[in-house]
Amino acid sequence: MEPSQSTTGGPTPPARAAGTAGAGGRADGRRPDELRPVCFRNDIAPHATGSTLIEWGNTRVICGVTIEDIVPRWMKEQGVPGGWVTAEYAMLPYSTLDRRPRDISRGKLDGRSQEIQRLIGRAMRAAVDLGRLGSRTLWVDCDVLQADGGTRTASITGSYVALALAIRKLLAAKRLTESPLLPPVAAVSVGLVAGQPLLDLNYVEDSGADVDFNLVMTARGEFIEVQGTGEKSTFTDRHLAQLLALGQQGIKALVAAQQAALAEQPA
Length: 267
Fold this sequence. Notes:
- By secondary structure, this protein is an alpha+beta fold.
- It has one domain (33-263): Ribosomal Protein S5, domain 2 (2-Layer Sandwich).
- The protein is 31% helix and 27% strand.
- It is globular, with a radius of gyration of 19 Å.
- It starts with a strand and ends with a helix.
């Protein structure tokens, strides 16, 4: 079966030489408030219960969800009802220009990978009513095929689509009697680059940003997590308000793209 596709953002602009700017003042020609093109290719991993390949600009992440009819030991020991959602994240060795060694070759999980997979897990738990999930664990695996900034935001945004597809299969198989899904969850980056507030930073922009934020939000406009720091300078409350407004705008567009991807998928 041909994987379904859904896109947002518009056509990829013509390539430009590094360091030159398009009409929008950005190297790739985007406006300051414009997302990179986003595309979902569902059912990319046949053995996963739900999966999608999210292509976000030049960043590509496979998000897959598998299900185990068990819960973590601590839930059993503490008598916590319902289910659990957890995540793992990895950048494949060829996802960056220079080969990135696998974590297993280092003998331990990279600190950045650990931070990101915990973030993905928190975001996806905010998208599910764990009580309605039943006594089962949803494993969310995110594997970065190609990195050009925003791998954590792409992982979260793609994971919700994979999660929703997995829940559909549970409902169709009558393993669930009601959907545990809560309002959609998506994530996006914003930042100040040379004093300019920008939405959805690519790698070049992210590495040169004075201020860098990652926002994780629901479709209702509620915040799940705000990660922000002054990388090279401080920022004011006016800057913060501008960045949050940009991020909220981006989240709305991403949620619309998620819903379009799920609408194209047969129930």
